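Assess this one:
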Amino acid sequence: MKKEPILDANGKRKFGMLDKFAYAAGDFGCNMSFSLKSTVQTFWLVYMMLETGLLSALLLVVQIWDAINDPMIGSMIDADRRKYKMGKFKTYILIGACGLLVAGALVFIPAPNAAVWLKAILFIVGYIIWDACYTIANVPYGSMLSLVTEDAGERAQLSTWRSVGSMVGNILPNVILPFLIWEKVFDENGNPVLDPDTGKQVQNLLGDRVFWAALIMGVLGFIGFIFMIKKITLRVDENSIKVNENEKFNVFKAFGNFMKNRPAVGATIAAMGMFLGMQSATTANTIMFATYFEQPSLSGVVMVVGFLPMFLFMPFIKKIVNKYGKKEASVLGTIVSLVGGALMFVFPLCENKSVGLIIYMIALVIYGIGMGVYTCVSWAMMGDAIDYNEWKFGTREEGTIYSLHSFFRKLAQGIGPSLVLLVMGALGYVAKLQTHGQSPETAYNMCWLVAALYAVSAILQLIGLAFVYNLDKKKLEQMTAELAERHAANAEAEPVAATTEAAE
């Protein structure tokens, strides 16, 4: 006999493990595409052999469009009042997921011998199509967190499980993929082929494998999206805040409200810090391992070490949030990350590279421990920021607020890697020499660049969380209680209004 689900007071299935696992599957789906961004720069820099200056310019162009694209789609979702069988959020996610089946591979079309102008066109067109599909899926997915539950502790758990889905989604491209796409070159006698200038063994990036890996990841991501759509339950009405149907949506007004929304701005500064630092360090980290440590396939393994400490906090995140608050716990963790970032500056000073690698990993673990709480609750903070907008301005604009958050986050993703590529060029990196042809000085400079990026990341996160984000535990409880009273009053008023209309 089939077991009946336990229902809450509103007749919805009670929040539980299925919601958490389903929401994690959604971010797994997102990251089957998003995590490939860490491979984009390496693919076009090493395999397609674009110079750092040109690639930097192309990245900046597509990332600016990427950033503008988000609020456009977010406002479109908020303004959409049509009734969908699955609901508008799940419907938009499904449309984006279908596009991502193939869109992720379009930016990895292997054509290393093409003319430079053709490479530039392939990059821009492929990236724009990929990004449009990703945004259509990701913006409603991120906005949906505030609709699954209104409970602060449950939102923190959803945020944590989203981070779990993100991490699992990052394992394939960042850990497994480097072992598949890098190949050491040997001659017909089985002897290593060495670069005549540097004496390092030649290692080739297999671009064809990157393309096929992106297609396979598109299928895996689609499966994750479908599982989430079928299994997750939305307990808050998508249109819980009534609007005047004749009132035209004003994106500039929404943008102004966003800038007045301190929790949204603070969480966005912290996220921008994370992307300007950690995400921008991905390419420099890969090049550092290829040129300095001469082990490019290990770069992904070491990167994951920084995320593993998150699992230390997972079983306790609800208790931590309920006792101390999201802001308070995240600020303390960010201070720990600052310590790890400072320790990063020690490893380039070690003459023994093995010792330097050990110190680098210790610093990364400390950095990751500090990031653990923030990683678990970062998305819940944006859910609270959406509530804050309703609390302060009387409008519930999930899509717009989340997409504007994504706008600035992606702006950081565009500016960060572009600046890093320019800095890499200034530090001596020459694309046509590939990784095995870089000078020892250039390889050494990559170590300092990686250390600086992690330190900058921690500083920006501290500014956003400690000094801008203003929803501490006490204020969050006040906001939640007052919104609950408003929703209850609206629910009681609707039957009365309907009765009056019927009588007229």
